[in-house]
Amino acid sequence: MRKSINGLSMLVEGAQGLDPFSGYLCVFSNRRRTIVKILYWDRNGFCLWQKRLEKDRFKWPDITKKSLEIGSRELNWLLYGLEIDQSKAHGRLRYGTVL
After folding, report:
1. Is 92 inside any structural domain?
2. Which of 7, 8, 16, 22 is the one with CA 20 to 30 A from 30?
């Protein structure tokens, strides 16, 4: 977790193949899962937000892909110390256009 804005934005663009100026929140964690950094572009500059836990660990998802897209609800769960896959949570509804 030594990387700051420049290093993390290069990781987003190079290793992940994403656009760091897209407006997405890019979330990173250290190996011990005690620190989370969130990088995002806000109109005219990058913002970097960090949270460090003193006694616990974040419930980081086990993924095999390079990246995982989650919603704001799942990000809040992660930051609150919950699993991002809550089996009892209501699913997201998507409505189509009615003609």
Report:
1. no
2. 22
- Interval 32-59: pLDDT, tens: 999 999 999 998 999 999 999 999 999 8
Containing domain of residue 45, as a range?
Answer: 5-80
- In a domain? residue 93: no
| Confidence (pTM) | 0.79
Domain count, the chain: 1
* Domain membership flag for residue 52: yes
Output b/e per residue, 60-87; b: 16+ Cβ within 10 A. eeeeeeeeeeeeeebeebbeeeeebeee
> Distance of CA 88 to CAs 5, 39, 45, 70, 80, Å?
36, 29, 38, 17, 16
Q: Which candidate, 38, 43, 51, 54, places its Cα nearest to that of 4? A: 38
Average pLDDT over residues 15-22: 84
Q: How far is CA 19 from the centre of its chain?
A: 14
* Average pLDDT across the chain, whole number: 87
